Amino acid sequence: MTQHRSIHLFRKGLRLHDNPSLVGVLESSEFVYPVFILDRAFMEGAMRIGVLRWRFILQSLEDLHHRLQALGSRLYVVQGPCLGVLRRLVAQWGVTQLSLDTEVEPHYLQQDQEIQALAGELSLTLRTAVAHTLYDVRRIVRANGGQPPLTYKKFLKVLSGLGEPSQPARDITAEDFQKCRPPLEEKGRCGVPSLEDEGRYGVPSLEDEGRYGLPSLEELGLHTEHQVLWPGGETQALQRLHTHMESQGWVNNFSRPRTIPNSLLPSTTGLSPYLALGCLSARTFYHRLSKIHAQSKNHSLPPGSLQGQTLWREFFYTIASATPNFSLMEGNPICLQIDWDQRKDLLHKWTMGQTGFPWIDAIMTQLRQEGWIHHLARHAVACFLTRGDLWINWEEGLKVFEDELLDADYSINAGNWMWLSASAFYHQLPRIFCPVRFGRRTDPTGEYLRKYLPVLKDFPSKYIYEPWKAPEEVQLQAGCVIGKDYPLPVVDHKEASQKNLEMMTQVHNQQESTARLTRDVVDDPMKMRLERNDTVEDEDGTPPTKQRRPDREQRAAPGREADTDDDSRDTE
């Protein structure tokens, strides 16, 4: 077998476990140089990246570097345009092979084509593997006749013919890198050759180390004083995975609709940032869950189970891979075309947590400070921005989530915003989040609000979700006058939600052929649960009462707006 001098290019997939392309290149190479190209123009051109996510990325790269050092290698971080950097490194290091993981997003597909062309031009062997998804999504599309399955029911049917996802790749060891003979011993700095080895190995000398180090957040011109609650990296990802997998009862009984959106600590796994950046393998997560479920006769089932959430992730990845303009309304064949309002003032107030609805504002404040919010909290603010109250284009909300979320993901972010705005996938139009009752149901004393909106911390629980209803003396005693120290509500929720429901119903009726593309009753996890129980929870959170099944309901009763606790397609 030809022994190559190889570059393994990290993009997403910042991990060593379940890394099939890295395993393959280690098994076929004389030398392997792990490289991350910090192409800031490409990264920020593909998706918005806020300061908290940049910090998470840099922490993940630092962790990867340390894990490689422990195996006798290192990570070479190079700043600059991807193709230009690759061309220079190939010449400088005498590289004959390049390996990388394939991705599904349009910007990565374009980059893949450019890298493939470069490899052909330079006569490089190109080695690729699928590692960010459970399946090769192209295989799913082919199995569905060349089109992505647009409903979850159809998607699961296609998967049933493909079998289980492949097992994770074998572990990588220090012996793998020793066999590749990385030049590293003489100067005692792991992964960095001595000066005399520069000509022998064709790699950078110790004096050049600064060119391949990881920049700091400040060196990128960024700064934040917000506390690190989600340290980046594979080490943290595996520790969090291990902690959750130890609680097998929690894993087996996990159900997304029963988690708490305004708990002060995450009631979900908190693994979504690590899955989004590839610090944690989706296949590893899926098969660890399978082992636990195999030991239990009774466990939660998809779509609400943890394993079901990985399939929702795969569902959106599959559709995004084969749908033009998936993150846009215009030119997107599965998205309803809606004449949204252009209210930049309201968009700004929503973004900054100044809507006058404490639950909405607390969620948006947590998002800016921490880079993470519970999936039902995401539902609430997304519904409020779009079809619920403000009637603003979901693309604007998508941009804010891209900026702020640690787990921002092209496919999942766009899919969920279309879902929550009822622009695609979701068709239970009367189910609208109430920005008062839903939060109060799970946190009646408002501890979540007091944490993220300290201006309201001294309000009595009776008024904290609707402080504008508090008598003047109560407001003065709490040290917060509504309209002065905290804003009045930007809309009347009852009037706005009823008006928007009527407009959205009209849109769905007028664009029935488009709406039908992604409609399937099985796609709505909340509806599935309701149909099993034949009950629905009242808006104010009182015990369930007998009602008609949702498929027989066409619209909310006059004068009423419904809130929902339906499930999510995020993987937090």
Write the layout of secondary structure elements.
Blueprint: E1 4-10, H1 20-26, E2 29-38, H2 40-46, H3 51-70, E3 76-79, H4 82-93, E4 97-102, H5 106-121, E5 125-130, H6 137-143, H7 152-160, H8 174-179, H9 197-201, H10 234-246, H11 248-253, H12 272-277, H13 282-294, H14 306-321, H15 344-351, H16 358-370, H17 375-388, H18 394-404, H19 410-420, H20 437-442, H21 447-452, H22 461-464, H23 472-478, H24 493-510, H25 512-517, H26 525-533, E6 535-536, E7 545-546
Parallel strand pairs: 1-2, 1-4, 2-3, 4-5
Antiparallel strand pairs: 6-7
Helix pairs in contact: 6-14, 14-19, 18-19
Counted by DSSP, the helix tally is: 26
- Quote the average pLDDT: 84
Structural class: alpha/beta
Strand content: 5-15%
Give the overall shape.
globular
**How many strands?**
7
Tell me the distance between the termini.
Answer: 43 Å
Spans of at least 5 consecutive residues with low confidence: 184-208, 254-258, 299-303, 522-572
Helix content, binned percent: 40-55%
Strand order within the widest beta sheet: 3-2-1-4-5
Main sheet makeup:
5 strands, parallel
How big is the Rg? 25 Å
